[in-house]
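Consortium newsletter contribution from the modelling node. Members have asked for a concrete example of what our holo predictions look like. Here is one, prepared for the magnesium ion complex that several groups have been discussing at recent meetings.
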Amino acid sequence: MAASQCVAMPSIQLLPDLLINQIAAGEVVERPASALKELLENAIDAGASEIDVRLAQGGIKHIRVSDDGSGIAKEDLPLALARHATSKIASLDDLERVRSLGFRGEALASIAAVSRLRIASRCRQDPHGWAVEAEGGAISPLTPEAVSPGTVVDVRDLYFNTPARRKFLKTDATEWAHCEEMFKRAALSRPDVDFTLQHNGRVCWHLRATSDFGQRIQALAGDAFAAAAIPIDARAGELHLWGMAALPTFSRGSRDLQYVFVNGRFVRDKLLVHAIREAYQDVLHHERHPAYVLFLELPAEAVDVNVHPMKIEVRFRDGGAVHRFVFHALQKALAAPAGAGVASPASAAPALPTPLGPLRREAHTAPQQTALNLRAAQPLGFYEALFGEAAAQSTVLPEAADADVIPPLGYAVAQIHGVYILAQNEQGLVVVDMHAAHERIVYEKLKAALDQQQVPTQALLVPVVLQASALDVATVAEQAEVLKRLGFEMAALSPTAIAVRSIPVALKEADPVSLARDVLRDVRELGGSRVLTERRNELLATLACHGAVRANRKLTLLEMNALLREMEATERSGQCNHGRPTWFQLSLSDLDKWFMRGK
Ligand code: ADP
Ligand code: MG
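And here is the predicted structure:
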């Protein structure tokens, strides 16, 4: 009886090698650009001084990478195609101090499982080379081949035997854009290597080897970036950060210009991105975006590169130390050029005038966020009040409020230096960082709207057209659904232009062009639909920053009070999205102490 119930259950079987490799390919070879990335890495690992890339039809039809590196010996050629076969590590010890870009020995096996692959290779000392072909897991016998020293890898008809995956490939233009981006990353990482890239027979990039990394960066990142960038070169112990970072005055073009390499490997690392953003925080106008090409070098043992299928994320052994180092190095460099329109970060330090010397320490610690009941009031639509559409304006005026009950954050009395709002409440004086506070409010609003799956959108009267990179155009096409969920409606107008038709209401004051660029970049980089789930808050933080009222925007008392009321009604409004406080309380007795009253 029991046995007959089990009959329907399939027995456990070992999967055939081809299928194993096809499954692995799903992770490693997501699209032509990821195959290209692996081939570029292999060429670099082989010590090439010249790398030539030729693509046809966005890499879907054909990817060829030729290098003049070490070559693969005849007896190793079939092994190169085998899974878990690598010349780069032999032990766990090696893995922990790996300096090569590859180490898992699975890229070629994975690519071979889902394409028609051919490798021709010759070691320098050999009179001629050898070629091997693989199709659908079957490996051909070796054939002699007349080639110059180095390796030529041809990948044709990606996913020809896995139609389900092929369906996920986008247009040639889209795949090409992704390939070009991969190429740029490789070329940026190694200025000492000569790189060329052709697409459908046309030469798109030829970058000569140079000992000057600035020259390579300029070639790839553009003259405007190079002109606005300062060189970075900082060391602390075994940590070394170098590269170029644009001054905050640089207005980023349509191209995304944020590249970070760790020990020569392009990474997208949250910790580093955070440290960099923080370094720009005090000096960057919110409509601008940091642009940088940075290289972090540290001992291989101090970073684990084996944490992501595409090796694009890393884990630092001492993340705190790396964060501090990158933050300080960059912040210092950005603060340095006097009069370049860069506010000194030091000006943000809370310091009281010197006559108060003796009381300084006390005064420093005196301002506090007291445990007020900030949820007392109803939200009053700060936007409405701020932008003059208030239906309920009178309710935010002190006169109209219940005279006996002063709201927790009190009533605004002034705005100073375009940054702070001063308000009087029952305890004394409240100081509010208006941008930080508003940013948190917008953020919480967007979060709530997204949770309810209805981000209120606002159609733009006249759609805004922006010049965009091919990657951005591709993102519009690929992620339309995700963008819609976020409250954006965009359409590709041409291969280089995008129309923005509507944006979230909460962001209607933001500049739609930079808003659109940021949302496209984040959606792409944080990974498509993941921006709606695990990476959601990162994206919303970017958006909130756009939507928040700018420093130096003059507010009326009415608007200031509306902001205070909105803060009282918003969760977590005590900190901005970056964790900094949004307001402080100075009690009357704090003030009395400063003036030595009543003592
Ligand atoms: P990994 O790079 O992780 O070792 P791959 O599957 O990418 O794994 O490559 C397998 C092996 O094939 C490499 O370890 C290397 O020995 C050899 N190989 C691949 N590409 C090249 C190349 N362009 N030049 C020299 N050797 C190569
Ligand atoms: Mg490899």
